[in-house]
Write a structure and sequence with these properties.
heterodimer, A: 168 residues, alpha+beta, Ubiquitin-like (UB roll), DNA polymerase, domain 1, 6 helices, 15% strand, B: 283 residues, Uridine Diphospho-n-acetylenolpyruvylglucosamine Reductase, domain 2, four-stranded antiparallel sheet, 29% helix, globular, binds flavin-adenine dinucleotide, binds FE2/S2 (inorganic) cluster
Chain lengths: 168, 283
């Protein structure tokens, strides 16, 4: 299939690319832009490891054409770390064992980022519902709930207290 | 864009352009892609793709004096967030359990209908609302009752050059109570074994109108008209008892990897009774 020039905005930067119109966003991110954080974990749009934000909304990049995202803002896990420091959630995952093999983690990060951006103080049920979109075969999820709750508290109190809390 | 004389990917922004592109390219429509891609597997799309996600006229959910119009591009998330009367509670509950949040953000109600899976979760709730679909081609616009639109497993009355532009729900029973129940191996990311939607229009403790629809237990979802008739005029107490095996005649469940036919039948009856009881309890 003939390649076509498209312009994507990824993590705040405009990127001009030549891709086949049938190319999936996930493959475009990984192969053409070397943004390999987003993963392919399944063949039937069911695992969430490829989750990115399109105009702030979590979507599966394995189920989207790159060309269909023209003019929209794409955020990948590489765009989550703020000001060079790890965002609260990334730090909390490390501190609480929210990741083991780590394959599912980038997808979870995007889901959680959206949850925290849209729900100031999510309840346990809201956290569980948001995370229903992502599968993890290692952790058993409990550590993630703890990490997310810790991150929310940390965001509320500022990053410093997170370290103290973990030390306790 | 062209390849060997064939359009390969088109992304129209108006309905007129979309209908023209579909007609000229003889391609396939792509909405949320949540049925489209999983069914492709490793293959590349065989036909040109007409991406309708940017078509303005297909967006949104609107209230008219006589009906609600769910745009042919409306996603599950849009439906969940839309202010809709009580009779839509069952459809909203179905929407909340479609796939997962990511699937709901992208997948459309129209795509669910056009894909016409026997296990499509929205169909029983929409059947119970007496919904119709609006189909447009370059030259015509027609309205087809949902009953007559879905013909069988992955078969619809849609012509190759038609776009489903809206789902129309008459405003006959805005304030009716409604309930949705589905049985699957787990809560999210699961294909249903049995699906039940119930709409009850109640006046002073008695049922004025009842609609009961069951999905995933026949090639296309069915209304249980005998049961509906039995329910009309009945009082709300012990309503669940009124549902009996004989009312499930329209169903023809199959054995497959998810459940046996007899288990499906049994679950359908249990779910119908439970849905009726839960719906009546909301009163
Ligand atoms: C992980 C996963 C879980 C799922 N879980 C559920 C579930 O719980 N319940 C359920 O019912 N479904 C489920 N689905 C199926 C799917 O998400 C839904 O059927 C969805 O509503 C399809 O909408 P779409 O916009 O993605 O359709 P697409 O995949 O874009 O299209 C589906 C078909 O409809 C046609 N089409 C789409 N829009 C139109 C239109 N406006 N006019 C004419 N033709 C059109 C397309 O050409 C295509 O043939 C799941 C899918 C996945 C991947
Ligand atoms: S790779 Fe599994 S959902 Fe996208
Ligand atoms: S940490 Fe291994 S899959 Fe989640």
């Amino acid at each position: 299939m003939k390649k076509q020039l498209i312009e994507l905005r990824v993590n705040g930067r405009p990127r001009e690319l030549a891709v086949e119109p049938s190319k999936l966003l996930l493959e475009t991110l990984r192969q053409d832009l070397q943004l390999t954080g987003s993963k392919r974990g399944c063949d039937d749009s069911s695992c969430g490891a490829c989750t990115v934000l399109i105009d702030g909304v979590p979507m599966l990049s394995c189920t989207l054409l790159a060309a269909s995202c023209e003019g929209q803002e794409i955020t990948t896990v590489e765009g989550v770390s703020e000001h060079g420091a790890l965002a609260a959630i990334q730090k909390a995952y490390g501190d609480w064992g929210g990741a083991q093999c780590g394959f599912c983690t980038p997808g979870f990060m995007m889901t959680v980022k959206h949850l925290l951006a849209t729900t100031a103080n999510p309840s346990e049920a809201e956290i569980r519902e948001a995370l229903s979109s992502n599968l993890c075969r290692c952790t058993g999820y409990s550590q993630m709930y703890q990490a997310i709750k810790a991150a929310i508290e940390a965001e509320q109190k500022g990053m410093d207290s997170l370290s103290q809390q973990v030390a306790k | 864009m062209w390849f060997a004389g064939v359009y390969v990917y088109l992304r129209p922004t108006t309905l007129e352009e979309a209908l023209e592109a579909l007609y000229q390219s003889r391609g396939e429509l792509l909405a949320g892609g949540t049925d489209f891609y999983p069914s492709l597997g490793e293959r590349l799309p065989a036909k040109p793709i007409v991406d309708i996600t940017r078509v303005r006229e297909l967006k949104g959910i609107t209230r008219k004096p006589d009906l609600f119009r769910i745009g042919g591009g409306a996603t599950w998330t849009e439906l969940i967030k839309a202010p809709l009367p009580r009779c839509f509670d069952a459809l909203k509950a179905a929407a909340r359990e479609i796939g997962s949040v990511q699937i709901q953000n992208r997948g459309t109600v129209a795509g669910n209908l056009c894909n016409a899976s026997p296990a499509a979760d929205s169909v029983p709730a929409l059947l119970a609302l007496d919904a119709a679909v609006e189909l447009a081609s370059r030259s015509t616009v027609r309205r087809v009752a949902l009953q007559d639109f879905i013909l069988g497993n992955r078969k619809t009355a849609r012509q190759a050059d038609e776009i489903l532009t809206a789902i129309l729900v008459p405003r006959a029973v805005d304030d009716a109570l409604s309930t949705f129940l589905k049985l699957g191996a787990r809560r999210y990311l699961v294909i249903s074994i049995a699906i039940v939607a119930v709409v009850l229009d109640i006046e002073s403790g008695k049922i004025r109108d009842a609609r009961v629809a069951v999905g995933s237990c026949s090639v296309r979802a069915q209304r249980l008209t005998d049961l509906e008739q039995r329910l009309r005029g009945a009082s709300l107490s012990d309503i669940a008892e009124l549902a009996a095996e004989q009312h499930l005649k329209p169903l023809s469940p199959i054995d497959d990897v998810r459940a046996s036919a007899s288990y499906r039948f049994d679950s359908a009856l249990t779910l119908v009774r439970r849905a009726l009881a839960q719906c009546a309890a909301k009163c």
